[in-house]
């Protein structure tokens, strides 16, 4: 028994103990079977099995393939049972669709719709790689035209061409010469050339009409009506009693007793006079320098008028020399002459007393602002901001352009002299401020910020240390006139509505108040120190475009508006 038990391995599953445990039935003891046949190599058997299975597709659920499959087997589709007598061809092996082999490609929905609609509309499309054109039709241009990058007119033209090629009848709309369909059908390129064929003879009625039209045109050209009239008759009318008094003094001579009544300025409260004479809106007003005994006004009715302020308060003289609206006016230092700029593209230098035009200047562009150099020895130098982004400087003695300041990117709106007239500041529609040395066309300071707006009006404080700039975002900004021209962030005057209007801003003679018109016809007054609104006067029915403080009468203000009225306030 010991010999029998030792013949079994301890973990052998065929041991009698395991058999007794695994089966309830007792069984006789069996010895392990041993084969006396030699070992057989199974490699040939596997090769023969592989040879027999080369004609069958591979089961995709297999994790191990004991042979090298062919390409046909790898590309064969997963189908049902294979027909035993139908061999698998190479073409069918590469197919994964009933129409061939389909590959996945990442394509945006817009691009797919574009090529899909192009294929159904024009008969061709581009494959996802963009290298090949698919379809029987071919594009006419080297660039691929799709339904999305062609204009509607080209679609109509192609539709008409295809209809003509297919000899399809035109719709009834295309037979009406007044319809767009007829125009598109008969439209021809200007480079197509003239049609070849016999010239069409005019009927007698057409010939008579053509001759009458040619005669009218020749007569109009002979009279000069066909061209724009550039020459305007310059004239002036005096409305006063006499041009000289009994002592021989001119009517523009200031009174001898004219002097400031009080050094302290006060806000006006009521309207004491109205000047009515302009038939259209008044665009600018200017008091005569130093004394303010005369008030000059420019209007959109192409006229300039000068009014008496101190005594009769009537119109003294009318100046007529512009053919279009007058944009800006500016007195000389002594008030004996003044400049005017109009939309007829002319700048005229007037004699205030006689009403004669001394000289006329023009560059062919619209002048927006005109200024004389304030220095007494440079009163013959004229600066004008033009609509072509330039500031042009003339010598009025010779009539020649002596300098051009060309740095702005928009029309120039204002010219303001600072620093004892050695420099001047200009503002423009390009939303920037530029500082220039007089006579040198190089910008020494360029001020432009993303938050800045156009500034169509600028005034200098009486102490010459600050600039007040009317910004079109409904506020007045203060800049220093020192070297750096910094923005004073502590001073800002707001509350009025000036967006879209070049409303004038000015100071009181003592510098205590800031004044500005607005787009609703009101005149606003602010305190200079506290920046608080002091008072608002309802002045005009339309836009209050200009306001001037009297240089001597410390509590009197003149305003003008687009209602054609000039008002005097006290």
Automatic annotation (TrEMBL):
WD repeats lie at residues 275-317, 319-360, 405-437, 537-570. The gene is LOC125551673. The lineage of its organism: Eukaryota, Viridiplantae, Streptophyta, Embryophyta, Tracheophyta. This is Pre-mRNA-processing factor 17. GO terms for cellular component: catalytic step 2 spliceosome. Residues 1-37, 142-181, 210-231 are annotated as: Disordered. It comes from the Eukaryota. PROSITE patterns: WD_REPEATS_1 (PS00678), WD_REPEATS_2 (PS50082), WD_REPEATS_REGION (PS50294). GO terms for biological process: mRNA splicing, via spliceosome. It is found in: Nucleus. Keywords: mRNA processing, mRNA splicing, Nucleus, Repeat, Spliceosome, WD repeat. It comes from Triticum urartu (Red wild einkorn). GO terms for molecular function: mRNA binding.
């Amino acid at each position: 028994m010991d010999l029998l038990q030792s013949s079994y391995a301890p973990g052998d599953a065929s041991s009698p103990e395991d058999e007794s445990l695994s089966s309830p039935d007792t069984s006789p003891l069996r010895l392990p079977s041993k084969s006396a046949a030699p070992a057989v190599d199974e490699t040939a058997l596997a090769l023969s099995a592989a040879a027999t299975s080369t004609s069958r597709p591979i089961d995709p659920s297999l994790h191990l393939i004991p042979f090298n499959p062919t390409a046909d087997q790898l590309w064969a589709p997963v189908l049902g049972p294979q027909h035993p007598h139908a061999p698998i061809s190479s073409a069918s092996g590469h197919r994964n669709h009933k129409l061939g082999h389909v590959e996945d490609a990442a394509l945006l929905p817009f691009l797919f719709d574009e090529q899909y609609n192009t294929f159904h509309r024009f008969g061709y499309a581009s494959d996802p790689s963009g290298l090949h054109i698919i379809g029987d039709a071919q594009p006419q241009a080297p660039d691929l035209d799709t339904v999305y990058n062609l204009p509607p007119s080209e679609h109509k033209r192609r539709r008409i061409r295809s209809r003509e090629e297919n000899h399809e009848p035109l719709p009834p709309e295309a037979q009406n010469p007044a319809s767009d369909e007829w125009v598109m059908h008969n439209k021809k390129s200007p480079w197509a050339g003239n049609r070849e064929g016999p010239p069409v003879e005019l009927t007698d009625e057409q010939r008579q009409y053509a001759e009458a039209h040619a005669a009218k045109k020749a007569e109009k050209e002979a009279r000069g009506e066909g061209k724009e009239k550039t020459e305007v008759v310059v004239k002036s009318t005096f409305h006063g009693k006499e041009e000289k008094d009994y002592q021989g003094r001119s009517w523009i001579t200031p009174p001898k007793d004219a002097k400031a009544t009080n050094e302290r300025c006060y806000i006006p409260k009521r309207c004491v006079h109205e000047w009515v004479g302009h038939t259209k809106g008044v665009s600018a007003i200017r008091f005569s320098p130093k004394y303010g005994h005369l008030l000059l006004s420019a209007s959109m009715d192409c006229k300039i008028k000068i009014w008496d302020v101190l005594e009769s308060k009537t119109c003294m003289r009318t100046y007529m020399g512009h053919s279009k609206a007058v944009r800006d006016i500016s007195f000389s230092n002594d008030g004996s002459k003044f400049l005017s700029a109009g939309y007829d593209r002319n700048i005229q230098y007037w004699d205030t007393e006689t009403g004669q035009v001394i000289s006329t200047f023009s560059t062919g562009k619209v002048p927006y602002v005109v200024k004389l150099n304030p220095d007494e020895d440079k009163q013959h130098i004229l600066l004008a901001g033009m609509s072509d982004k330039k500031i042009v400087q003339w010598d009025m003695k010779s009539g020649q352009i002596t300098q051009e300041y060309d740095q702005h990117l928009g029309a120039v709106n204002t010219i303001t002299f600072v620093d004892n007239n050695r420099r001047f500041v200009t503002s423009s529609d390009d939303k920037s401020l530029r500082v220039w040395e007089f006579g040198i066309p190089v910008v020494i300071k360029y001020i432009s910020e993303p938050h800045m707006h156009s500034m169509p009006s600028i005034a200098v404080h009486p102490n010459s240390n600050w600039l007040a700039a009317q910004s079109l975002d409904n506020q007045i900004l203060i800049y220093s006139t020192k070297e750096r021209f910094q923005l004073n962030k502590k001073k800002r005057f707001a509350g009025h509505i000036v967006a879209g209007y070049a409303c004038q801003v000015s100071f009181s003679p003592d510098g205590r108040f800031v004044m500005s018109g607005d787009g609703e016809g009101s005149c606003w007054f602010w305190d200079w120190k506290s920046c608080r609104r002091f008072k608002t006067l309802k002045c005009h029915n339309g836009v209050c475009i200009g306001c001037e403080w009297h240089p001597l009468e410390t509590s009197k203000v003149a305003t003008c508006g687009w209602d054609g009225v000039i008002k005097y306030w006290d």
